[in-house]
Amino acid sequence: MFEVLPLLPNDPILGLSIAYANDVNADKVDLGVGVYKNDSGQTPIMKAVAEAEKLRIARDITKAYTPPAGVPGANEASTRLVFGAEHPAVAAGRVRTVQAPGGCGALRVAAELIQRAKPGATLWVSTPTWANHMPLLGSAGLKLREYPYYDYASHNINFAAMLATFNEIPRGDLVLLHACCHNPSGADLTNAQWDQVADVLVERGIIPFVDMAYQGFGEGLEEDAYGLRMLANRVPEMIVANSFSKNFGLYRERAASLSLVFADTRQADAGFSQVLNVARAIYSMPPAHGSTIVDIILHSDELTRLWQSELTQMRERIAGLRVHLVQSLSSLQQTRDFSFIAKERGMFSFLGLTVEQVRKLKSDYSIYMTDTSRISVAGLTKEKMDYVAKAIVAVL
Ligand code: LMR
């Protein structure tokens, strides 16, 4: 039976990590996958996480199954982190949260739930969007369509075109929005733009589906949640897929949550039973370790403070690298303006290179990025900055 299956190429993002690991060049630089690295090029375990892991080991006395929705404390803490302390939709009992195996798991469970409620529903995604959104959500059966978002020439959001498309979207369709740190462009909506988006979604009865994979990496934990919290105040139904991979550095633990906003508590109870049933049919219940770490940290004032300060350091380090890269590039040439990189947020920016230039960076300099010239800024270090900037200028 399996003889019919052809060999597939490596994943466009994860495949870069494999190629990078196999590269023997001592100067190699990994700007591929969106994983935070410190100035030594390491992805360390956060101190707050390490402390919480010790507490978990001392505290836990069983490996028995968790409830189907995951660790209860983590659900309460995730809801508070995502929606804020006293969100009206939460207070009204309209929000239900379950843990999920990674942000991908949360997105996929949501897509399966949408399929149950509205088979073949249309989900509009930004152009461009994260490379895995299409296969992950499309293979659940959703119809995917695109709305204009990033203008490669001006390095700005094409907001007028985005709104114009939203104004044509049929009632009941869904739109996928990145809460912050847009992946792959790094270009985020301003609060005023979020408000305008909400006006159109409310007026047209379009359902927001928000992917929040980088809370705390843009402007701050509260600031980055502005759009989704405001939307949850204004729309009857909404979906939020939230990942702890980046902001708790829990990548391999597959820790994430899915929050659903329902029109009323009766629908919330029914929807919650359905989401548990979707999860049961795929993986039964989510992994417990990562979400227990989140539970412990967010229920300890001391560990929350430590975690927040570490997250702030990560955010500020990336912002500093952005400025440093712009300076390095402009000190070497004046023909191309890269100042947009310092204005963008989160892990990613497009350099604006051709596929040939990207491939030359890989073959001649062992600098790895996706073919779209998306770089994970967090993969830069002070030590490698000069090397990277010179290589980029050489291939321009
Ligand atoms: C990325 O975009 O690099 C990250 O979200 C990691 C992934 O799974 O693609």
Brief description of this entry?
By secondary structure, the protein is an alpha/beta fold. 45% of the residues lie in helices and 14% in strands. The N and C termini lie far apart (48 Å).
CATH topology of the largest domain: Aspartate Aminotransferase, domain 2
Number of strands: 13
Low-confidence region ranges? none
Query: What's the CATH H-level homologous superfamily of the largest domain?
Result: Type I PLP-dependent aspartate aminotransferase-like (Major domain)
Our measurement of the CA-to-CA distance between the termini, rounded to an integer number of angstroms, reads 48 Å
How many DSSP H or I helices? 15
Summed up, the domain count is: 2
By CATH reckoning, the class of the largest domain would read Alpha Beta
Neighbour order of strands in the largest sheet = 2-10-9-8-7-3-4
Radius of gyration: 21 Å
Please describe the biggest sheet, giving its number of strands, its sense, and whether it closes into a barrel.
7 strands, mixed
Structure commentary:
The chain is α/β, with parallel strands linked by helices and 396 residues long. The chain has 2 domains: 2-46 and 303-395, Aspartate Aminotransferase, domain 1; 65-299, 3-Layer(aba) Sandwich (Aspartate Aminotransferase, domain 2), CATH 3.40.640. Helix content is 45%, strand content 14%. It has 15 helices and 13 strands. It has helices at 14-22, 47-59, 72-83, 88-91, 102-117, 133-138, 159-166, 191-204, 226-234, 265-282, 289-298, 301-332, 340-343, 355-365, 382-395, and strands at residues 29-30, 95-101, 122-127, 143-148, 150-151, 156-157, 174-178, 207-212, 238-243, 255-261, 348-350, 367-368, 374-376. Strands 2-10-9-8-7-3-4 form a 7-stranded mixed β-sheet, with helices on both faces. β3, α6 and β4 (143-148) form a beta-alpha-beta unit. α3 crosses α11 and α12 (301-332) runs parallel beside α15. It is globular and about 60 Å long. The N and C termini lie far apart (48 Å). Bound molecules: (2S)-2-hydroxybutanedioic acid. (2S)-2-hydroxybutanedioic acid (LMR) binds next to loops.
